[in-house]
Amino acid sequence: MERNLKTPESNYPARWWHTLPHEEGKPERIQCDLCPRDCKLHEGQRGACFVRQNIADRMVLTTYGRSSGFCIDPIEKKPLNHFYPGSSILSFGTAGCNLACKFCQNWDISKSKDMDRLMDAASPDGIASAAAAYGAQSVAFTYNDPVVFAEYAIDTAVACRERSIKTVAVTAGYIHPEPAREFYAVMDAANVDLKAFTDEFYVKLCGGHLQAVLDILVYIHHETSCWLEITTLLIPGQNDSVSEIKVLSEWVVRELGADVPLHFTAFHPDWKMGDLPPTPPSTLTHARRIARDAGLNYVYTGNVHDTEGGTTFCPACHAALIERDWYNIRRFDLPDDGCCPHCQTRIAGRFGKFGKPFGAQRIPVRLARR
Questions:
Q1: Whole-prediction pTM value?
Q2: Among 47, 52, 199, 233, which is most exposed with the fewest C-beta within 10 angstroms?
Q3: What sign results for the dihedral spanned by CA atoms 175, 176, 177, 181?
Q4: Position 1 in a domain
Q5: Which residues pair with 46 in a beta bridge?
Q6: What angle do CA 296, 297, 300 make, to 5 degrees?
Q7: Most distant CA pair in the chain: distance in Å?
Q8: Which residues contact 360 (CB under 8 A, 6 or more apart)?
């Protein structure tokens, strides 16, 4: 079923907003109900994400149908290690973000206010068709947070399901419960950035609050069929203390369970935190040890060459089942049913027939407008 393509010029009608009570002597305002920022906007104003705008006292999404680019990536880059390992995924994003992370690694896209950066135009059906044509098993909403283009992501996810293409949200999880229900109902997997485990970090470095993200993590894992993995970017001197990593890991075990994969990834200086050093590999190794000691079965290191930190081990017999070096799968010893061949323990995740791994390649693609 072909859907109408809405361009920034036509301004796609947004959802999840309401008109605020009129105050005498003041202009009308509307409030965005998509995320906890609750932006209140006068005529013409844009929200903190910069892509949701008040036009004629109605909320519009200015980036529907436009992308900052498309690439075929390995699924491990999202990072997802327990969701059809070795498969390829069509990745794309738009522009804008509803957080203001000073360490953003994709700041040229997520912080962009320049719509000229949105070079590719594609309808939801066009994206689903392209994924099928390129042999990608999944489509990823990534590069910037898909929460801010939720209407576009949801429509694309529906189009993908019609073609048996999986969908993946790479997100900070900063979204209100009502839109979250509709968003995650059509997502097959999500990697949620848990930026840190203190509200002070979220307030000072991200412009948000921790509890809203924790609530969404609990919701995704316990109330949806969406496969969940978590990533924490460890920033030297900011969120990498032994005590914080321990508390974070214990929370995941207690509230989500031992089988939710946790990724600790390396920071590199960027955006407004260019004066900090990159994360030492030893910090990631130590964090992984802390999390495993806390009871987590699947803990990974990322953005570094670390074969042990990238390998999936059976939590029962400790056999190495999927050996990785960064995005490369060196050895795959897990049957299609996802059970350890040595002790028959079921490995948490979504698995299927494993063929030739896609590898570390990244293939930019252009989509014809459909």
A1: 0.94
A2: 199
A3: negative
A4: no
A5: 53
A6: 85
A7: 74
A8: 74, 326, 327, 328
Question: Is residue 232 located within the same domain as residue 256?
Answer: yes
Based on the domain organization, do 265 and 206 belong to the same domain? yes
Do 238 and 175 sit in the same domain of this protein? Answer: yes
Task: State whether 200 and 334 are in the same domain.
Answer: yes
**Range of weakest confidence among 27-31, 65-69, 123-127:** 65-69
Range of the domain at 47: 12-61
6 in a domain, yes or no?
A: no
Predicted confidence (pLDDT) per residue in 202-241, tens digit: 999 999 999 999 999 999 999 999 999 999 999 999 999 9
* Whole-number Å distance between alpha carbons of 320 and 307: 11
The angle at the Cα of 291, spanning 288 to 292, to the nearest 5 degrees, equals 85
3-state DSSP percent of the chain in helix, strand and coil, to 5? 25, 25, 50
Unique residue bearing structure tokens 């738009």 = 94
In angstroms, the CA 41 to CA 56 distance is 11
Residue 152 C-alpha from the chain's centroid: 15
Q: What CATH code is carried by the domain that includes residue 98?
A: 3.20.20.70
For the cut 60, the answer to whether the pLDDT of residue 62 exceeds it is yes
Indicate the range of 105-109, 179-183, 219-223, 308-312 predicted with least confidence.
105-109
Percent of the chain with pLDDT over 70: 92
Considering only CA atoms, which of 238, 189, 244, 184 is closest in space to residue 215?
A: 184
Q: What is the pLDDT of residue 22?
A: 84
Q: Is residue 44 over pLDDT 90?
A: yes
pLDDT band at 105 (very low <50, low <70, confident <90, very high): confident
Within this chain, do residues 175 and 264 fall inside the same structural domain, yes or no?
A: yes
Report the SS3 class of residue 299.
Answer: strand
Cβ partners under 8 Å of residue 26, min gap 6 = none
Task: Show the tokens assigned to 150.
Answer: 């939720």
Distance separating the N- and C-terminal Cα atoms of the chain = 12
Shared-domain flag, residues 310 and 276:
yes
- Edge-to-edge strand ranges of the sheet holding 12-13: 12-13, 58-61, 52-55
Query: Is 370 within a domain?
Result: no
Same domain, 29 and 74: no
Report if residue 2 sits inside a domain.
no
Q: 271, 104 in Cβ contact below 8 A?
A: yes
